[in-house]
Each structure stands twice: as structure tokens, then as C-alpha cells.
Amino acid sequence: MSHFKSTPAWLLVALLCAISADAHEIGKTQVLASLQDGAYQVDVVVDPDALLPTLEAYGQRPLSRDVPRDERDRRIAALGSVFMERAGVSFNGQPVTAEIEYLPSSAFNDFAQAPSKVRLRGAIPRGAANFSFTYGLALGTYALNVRLGDGPVQTQWIVGSAPSAPVSLVAPPPPPTRAEIGWQYFVLGFTHILPHGFDHVLFVVGIFLLTSQWKSIVAQVSTFTIAHSITLALTMYGVVSLPAKVVEPMIALSIAYVAIENLVVSELKPWRLALVFSFGLLHGMGFAGVLRDLGLPRPAFLTALLTFNLGVEAGQLSVIAIAFVLCAYWQQRDRVQYRRFIVQPASLAIALTGLFWTIQRALA
Questions:
Q1: Are strands 130-135 and 87-91 parallel, antiparallel or unpaired?
Q2: What is the CB neighbour count within 10 angstroms for residue 334?
Q3: pTM of the predicted model, to two decimals?
Q4: Where are the domains of the chain?
Q5: Which helix (DSSP H) or strand (DSSP E) does residue 188 occupy?
Q6: Residue 249: which H helix or E strand, with range?
Q7: Neighbour order of strands in the sheet with 167-168
Q8: Span 183-221, pLDDT tens digits
Q9: pLDDT tens readout for residues 240-250
């Protein structure tokens, strides 16, 4: 019985510590590079609310808190030199000096959570044979999309501050095969859940906690996948669209709801699948942020969407498998104690995290 008393405390502390961490939002940081007519333009698409404190930290400035949007944008523009210390354009392995311009989100739309752009421009050195880019402010994975003239977009997924692979300016590689595209987006979908999608992991764990029956768990996860696949496809094809200002708080609220339901009911109710389906529709719009504006290969657009969804499903099932391995012994030993010392503390921590994110995202 002592194992029950130690394990939940560890789990509760671990989840509560995560409350202060932001949920992963891969896709907000993107790099779009265009090289033609002897000039280059690199647009770094960023989350301005995350960019300002990052620049201030690297520039050893006091961190701004709760500043109006206009003041936030003014401070970001003033820290252009700090940005250039962490971002670099290179030709033939040699860094070049770029002209920098900050384009705030208000230049594109009126939503406070919309991304902004930092634009780098300059001339391509004569005789340059390849191009590369480094972004030292990236914390997770971001997409580097490079277009040479009117050619196809070449996409690389860069991890953190690692430099990109050189992009040849004289002998562009052949377009990727359908199989290569499928694998690339399968991996992207999987890593969007593990290890980067902490908010989605909590949602899946919340689904797992209420029942130990594999059929019920897989039914909920599959229902969730079908739902987010629908809205992901519709959003990517431009059929439906909701601003991140609306979608992100609702996703966080869905996490809190599933956990709260775990606290007030002890068995799976008939309405759970319908709710999971509804929440999946919301999460699908959030997943669309991963793929939007990344220059998806048009001939294999459907392949990329399908394999991304397969990767997400594989990631979710991996979360379930890990949770089952960690909890199977306690589930089988004593269901009453399992609910008291595992389900309830973990669900409470997930609920608090979801509510915290809901408020945080609503006020951002």
C-alpha cells in the first residue's frame, strides 16, 4: 500500500510543475526564404508575445510584463540588433549582413495572438553556390521553406538553433517523392504529440484515466483522431477558419473538462464519445497551425495531410501505451485505491493546468 502513497505524489508534483510551461505550438515559428534576381528575403514568422521576453533575456534587459500591443511591437523593433545576434543568413558557409525589418501582426490582421514577421533582406553575393540559415531563438522544431526563383518550395525541419542544411543555388535537388513526403509528415505528426505536444498529451492522459478498458480507450482516441482530421482538412483547404484567439483557449478548456469529468464520475458515460468528438474538432483547428503557410507540396497535399494524421494517431497511442505500462499494475491490484491515489490527483492536476491555460490564452 505504500507504493500508492508515493507514486501519486510524484505524479501530482510533476503535473503541477508543468502548469507554468506553455503548451507546444509548433507552427507559429516558421522561416520563409525567397531567393531570386540576385537578392534574398527571409521572413521569420514568430509569436510576438514569446519573442519579446526572449529578446530581452538575450539582451540582458528587464523583462516586460503586460505591455500593450503597440508598446510590445515598439520594444521588439528596438531589439533588432539582439535578433541579428541570434539569427544568421549564410552563403557558401559565410555569414552576410542583412537589413532587418519588423512587421507586427497588426499589419496582417487584428487578432492579438496573430504571428508577426521579422524580415531579413540583402543581396546574394556573386558566385554564391549555396544558402543556409540559423535561428538561435527557436526552442522547438520549426520549418524552413526555401524557394529559388519560381521553383518548388524546399522544406527542412530544423531543431532549435541547429543550422540548416545548405540549399544549393546552382543544382537544386529533385522534388521529394511521395514516400519521402509521407514519412516527413508522419514524423512531424508524431513529434507534435511526443515529445512536443504537452497539451495534447494531457488531453489523451485524461481520456485514459477514466477507464482501463482498451476498447473504450482506443474508441475515444480514434473518435478524437477522426474529428481532428475533419477540421484539419477543412481548415487547410480554407473551408472553415477560426482565429487562434478563440481556438487556443477552447482547446485548453477541453483539457480541463475531461479531467473534471474524471473527478465527478467513476465510469465512462455514453456522452463521452460525443464530447471527445467535439473536442477533436477544436484540436484539429489547432493542428492546422502546424501545417498552414508551410508550402505543402501541392501534388502530394493529401498525402501530407493523411500521414500527418497517422503520425498524430501513432503519437497518441504511444502516450496511451506508456500510461498503461505505468499504471497497469495499480489498475489491476485495487481499483478503489487506483482511483483515489492515481486518477483523482492526476485529474485534479490536469484540470488545474487546463484552467490555467484557458485563462492565460484568453487574456493573451
A1: antiparallel
A2: 13
A3: 0.68
A4: 2-23+197-363, 30-174
A5: helix 178-193
A6: helix 244-264
A7: 94-96, 87-91, 130-135, 167-168
A8: 888 988 888 788 777 888 998 899 888 776 777 888 888
A9: 777 767 787 88
